Batch of 2 targets.
Target 1
Amino acid sequence: MTTPLLEVTDLVRHYTLPRESLFTPPPQVKALNGVSFSLQAGRSLGIVGESGSGKSTIARLVMALDQPTAGSVKLLGRDLHRLPREELRLARRDVQMVFQDPYGSLDPRQTVERIVAEPLAALAGSSRAEQRERAAESLAAVGLRSTDLHKYPHEFSGGQRQRIAIARALITRPKLIVADEPVSALDVSVQAQVLNLMQELQQEFGVSYLLISHDLAVVNHLCDEVCVLHRGLVVERGAPARLFAHAQHPYTQALLAAVPRAEPPVPA
């Protein structure tokens, strides 16, 4: 059997809060309580759940931006949290992230060229000319022009800024992109454009997506498989069409029931 691109095994993350009293132990928040899943190369996996279910904690741990209490995150067979610092820095070439807020994640004081080339510059070993060329290629891949390299984030619309964020994630040619609510801050009319772009980039570059979202329609549009997260546990997993049509777990059923549906107008 093919080794998964990403393999998460028994992932646990508990956070210790400040003591409320000298005479009581510090309280703990149990964000993740033993999460396991895998993702094959070229596929997309959605993680869905309500706020506080542990979705963003998974994203931070997969990106090795936080340390797990227990469990492992393996990318291409390497446990990211056990790699020496230099090896982890090099491993980041294979995994990049797209954040929820396309404006907040872009430094307003930097040009688009500097923003997009940032991951490549952090890896070292490339000249400014090469970084500029690769940045122009990444912008072209997301439908923007090389003349946009010299502009600043405030000169673009929300959808264009998210395209810039995706271009930044693409510049190292990663195997995996972790997308944390990538379209929730965008107008509904722009969301489909960005999701279609992500699909086109997957076909062109073979990139895999780990999509963190509360929006079932977004997951259904982009993902081959979905994990439903509830109180730090995966309670149901499967293809979106099957899972959403025949949900077995009460929590999944409750999520589906909470999706707003347009009702036909009642005749006067």
Note: The chain has a mean pLDDT of 90.
Target 2
Amino acid sequence: MAIEAWYMDSCEEDPKKPHRLEPNQPVSVEELEKLGVFSWKLNADIYENDPELEQIRKDQGYSYMDVITIHRDTLPDYDNKLKVLYTEHLHLDDEIRYILDGHAYFDVRNKQDRWIRIFLTKGDLITLPAGIYHRFTPDEIEYTKAMRLFVGEPVWKAYNRPADEFEIRHKYVASLQGS
């Protein structure tokens, strides 16, 4: 089953809520791919020895990985970390996350600058392209166990919006012109 995504409402309340428009306006996997957002559905129960994951890692050059658990009991300074993750930002490298357990949301901007909410559940692997504005939050369950994947040495430096001066942002915006 493919990941689920939809256009968000403009409500500024609790970011952990779904924030669906009424009526719901779904966003297809194809629409996400036009934004450079790609996803796979894998068997998270066998992630340590999954040949499909290994092939994706090999094909994409994901040479480094670690696992993080986002929960009030396991993540120091939980509330402040969530504020940082939910602040709109971009990275100079792709962001690759594989949900091993729990749920989470990634919000991305479309070409018209509208928010799209992507709901990730156990087994979802997602890549966000370098230069895309986005943010992250767990859902109301407040529990996500995720594998973070990187090409080469891990770099996790966020540049809060506005960050339009970066070359990678210019490349990303240019990539949208053809889609």
Note: The CA atoms of residues 72 and 78 lie 6 Å apart.
